[in-house]
Automatic annotation (TrEMBL):
It comes from the Bacteria. This is DUF6585 family protein. It comes from Actinomadura adrarensis. InterPro entries: DUF6585.
């Protein structure tokens, strides 16, 4: 979506009601902030320019890295890459916004609610839905080299920075780095619904 001069509003003609505001981290009077609406995200730069991301048509990639010292968590680095329908990217990190962890969770939750019905409908029509290196189809979850049928899948989980698709039997998993899987929580929500429908 293109940049505009429009300020943040309590309601937005395209995105609906404002639900939360996340200010810039370091400057109290900075114009920079993230505005979360019902159907989209508006990022306002320090210059006042805005960038709009509709939840129904945005790709979100995340990377969360914990640094440990003597076995204890010392810090956590958050990085969320948003790609709009026009291909424009914005990166959100600890250094840009306060409550970055909450902002990331909020965005991911809205994206799941906006995109899950369409992905499920696509699977029912027999489409193959790509999530980076992973793809879903009516047959199962796979990559270009390997497919696990739905009945063969034991679990899909996060493990040390990867999305791991583990089979019911055997040790050969399918895995992809979380940061390389766009809308990873949409993928997990689809898997949960499909597996529940099949009785696990």
């Amino acid at each position: 979506m293109g940049e505009t001069e429009s300020p943040g509003r309590v309601a937005d003609a395209e995105f609906g009601a404002l639900t939360d505001t996340f200010p810039a981290k370091f400057r109290e009077k900075s114009k920079k902030k993230a505005l979360v609406y019902e159907r989209g995200l508006v990022l306002i730069a320090r210059s006042g320019k805005t960038r709009r991301f509709p939840f129904g048509d945005v790709r979100v990639q995340q990377e969360i890295v914990e640094k440990r010292l003597y076995g204890f968590r010392a810090s956590t680095a958050y990085r969320f890459v948003l790609t709009g329908p026009d291909g424009h990217k914005k990166v959100l990190t600890n250094f840009g916004y306060r409550r970055i962890d909450e902002l990331g969770r909020t965005i991911q939750g809205h994206v799941v609610r906006a995109q899950l019905p369409g992905v499920l409908a696509g699977l029912q029509r027999g489409e193959q839905i790509e999530f980076g290196k992973l793809c879903l189809s009516k047959d199962g979850i796979g990559t270009r080299r390997r497919l696990l049928a739905w009945d063969e899948i034991g679990a899909v989980k996060f493990e040390e920075g990867y999305v791991v698709v583990a089979p019911r039997e055997g040790r050969l998993n399918i895995a992809a780095a979380v940061k390389a899987v766009p809308n990873v929580f949409v993928l997990l929500a689809v898997v949960e619904q499909v597996m529940d429908a099949r009785g696990r």
